[in-house]
Design a protein that fits this description.
Helix content: 25-40%
Strand order of the largest sheet: 1-4-3-2-5-6
Largest sheet: 6 strands, parallel
Strand content: 15-25%
CATH superfamily of the largest domain: HUPs
Number of domains: 2
Distance between the termini: 47 Å
Order of helices and strands: EHEHEHHEHHHEHEHHHEEE
Shape: globular
Number of helices: 11
Structural class: alpha/beta
Bound molecules: adenosine monophosphate
Radius of gyration: 19 Å
CATH class of the largest domain: Alpha Beta
CATH topology of the largest domain: Rossmann fold
Length: about 280
């Protein structure tokens, strides 16, 4: 595996491969890699000649300094994992390499998608995501980029960015990879204390029960039920639960037959924030 920290040699490598007619798959990550990340890489490897993974803990997408400082960094283990699965290139830029001297985000308009859910609770988050992903796209210039449905709102926002800026990059969403007990894999899970880790699968269990209720109950009734369920959980605090249209991410009151819906949830275990979502069936 080629390990690069600077854009120039990466761009030279990619230009050469593109001249040879090779396709490039790209997976941007913040590191502390787990099987969820690896599933995205495996999908990319099946469909592309070369796969580039980036690890960059992007300062501008964190609304809380504490969350940025405590974000797990495990470069050596990540490198080994990527070597083992024969990843072609790991791009590990410094903050200066991405932002030069000004660590600020650009302002994006994603047709209002940026103000819902994560955008409402994490001020400036999607401006940070948009800034770093656009910069990484400009550097890597991939044919296809892979994003997890774990961060479904992010996936929809990246699709919107590509469409609005006419980028010639295909965006592929990949299913959520879970622990055996249902907890969605996340780099943040390693920070959970033992009791919090034991309590955390309740999030997915509640999503599953909510999805079963969706055929017979109104969204507002399910919301009340979820809130009550979390009151019984001393180690978990519900930040939001909502049922929303997959395209607009608008919370719904009543269902329409030709629309696709998902339930979205954000929960705190202590000061660790966990998110998850589930696709809903009409009946
Ligand atoms: P992160 O390192 O958390 O920024 O994630 C990098 C990419 O991996 C994003 O596109 C995430 O949505 C995706 N990802 C993270 N966790 C999972 C998971 N459990 N299943 C599938 N994709 C995931």
């Amino acid at each position: 595996m080629i390990f690069l920290t600077e854009k120039a040699p990466l761009q030279a490598f990619i230009s050469e491969k593109k001249l040879q007619g090779k396709s490039i798959g790209f997976i941007p990550t913040m590191g502390a890699l787990h099987k969820g990340h690896l599933s995205l890489i495996a999908t990319a490897q099946k469909k592309n000649d070369f796969v580039v993974v980036s690890i960059f803990v992007n300062p501008t997408q964190f609304d809380k300094e504490e969350d940025l400082i405590n974000y797990p960094q495990t470069l050596n283990a990540d490198r080994k994992l990527l070597e083992n699965i024969s990843c072609d290139v790991l791009f590990y830029p410094s903050v200066e390499e991405i932002y030069q001297n000004t660590i600020t985000s650009k302002s994006f308009y994603f047709d209002g998608l940026e103000h819902k859910m994560e955008g409402k609770f994490r001020e400036g988050h999607f401006n940070g995501v948009g800034t770093v992903v656009k910069t990484l796209f400009e550097i890597v210039n991939p044919d296809v980029a892979y994003f997890g449905e774990k961060d479904f709102q992010q996936l929809q926002i990246i699709k919107k960015m590509v469409q609005k800026h006419n980028l010639k990059i295909q965006i592929e969403g990949c299913p959520i990879f879970r622990e055996k007990d249902g907890l969605a894999m996340s780099s943040r899970n390693v920070r959970l204390e033992k009791q919090q880790r034991k309590a955390a699968p309740f999030i997915y269990k509640t999503l599953l029960k909510a999805s079963k209720k969706f055929s017979e109950h109104k969204a507002s009734e399910i919301l009340i039920w979820v809130k009550e369920e979390f009151k019984k959980q001393p180690l978990l605090t519900l930040e939001y639960f909502t049922i929303a249209d997959e395209e607009t991410l608008e919370s719904i009151q009543t269902k329409e037959n030709n629309k696709n819906y998902r339930a979205f949830i954000a929960v705190f275990a202590g000061n660790i924030r966990l998110i998850d979502n589930i696709k809903l069936k009409h009946s």
